[in-house]
Amino acid sequence: MSITTSTLVSFVTASLITVAASAQTIYKSVDQYGNVTYSDEPPANATAEKLELKPLNTTPAITPAPTPNPPLVSPSPSPEPEATSPPKQASGYGLRLVTPKSEQRFGPAEKTLTVVMLTQRKLEPGLRFQVYIDGKVRETTDSNNVSIALSKALQGRRSVSAAVVDGAGNVIERTEERTIFVIRPAGHG
């Protein structure tokens, strides 16, 4: 790792300016190898150039004025979600997709699609993860890491999402859909 002299000088100068607020004099010395050293004391066994620093311009911190308490407002009832929108994240799992990334492309060399889901807390007993491709259930599992073989049948633009479901398959919480592209050469399965 190489540090340039100008970078070192800038760092040392900035560091010493903080110290120099009380001691306005610093000393600059250069050794036989060209290394520059700054100090608030003159070196004992070398010649040093005495530098006078100008006083620092400082401003005292501002104390914000206290703010009055806002009036309490009753929340208005929210409208029922439309059937096409994913369920709200009211379960507190904070389910989200880590992979695949939105607009990710899977070329011919890639044989699997790995779907990784994260939650803020452990799933309650009886709940499972479900992975969807194009809105259809592809896999239901206890694992938050699912590998799906990429075949010619999955070629093209696809949407991927995941959900936490109960034993009856009811969606508790669902992620956003992400678009991916599966690219397969002609004649390969």
CA-to-CA gap between the ends?
49 Å
Q: What is the general shape?
A: elongated
Order of helices and strands: HEEEEEEEEEEEE
Counting helices, strands and paired strands, the structural category is mainly beta
> What's the main sheet like?
6 strands, mixed
Determine the fraction of residues in helical runs and give it as a percent range.
under 10%
Portion in strands:
25-35%
Q: Flag low-confidence runs.
A: 19-23, 81-89
Number of strands: 12
Gyration radius (Cα, Å) is 31 Å
What is the fold's blueprint, element by element?
Elements lengths: L4 H15 L5 E6 L5 E4 L9 E4 L43 E4 L4 E3 L5 E7 L9 E6 L2 E6 L3 E5 L6 E10 L5 E4 L3 E5 L7
Parallel strand pairs: 5-12
Antiparallel strand pairs: 1-2, 1-3, 4-6, 6-9, 7-8, 7-10, 10-11, 10-12
Task: Describe the overall structure.
By secondary structure, the chain is mainly β. The chain has one helix and twelve strands. Strands 5, 7, 8, 10, 11 and 12 form a six-stranded mixed β-sheet that branches. It has a three-stranded antiparallel β-sheet with strand order 2-1-3, with helices on one face. The longest helix has 15 residues. About 7% of the residues have low confidence.
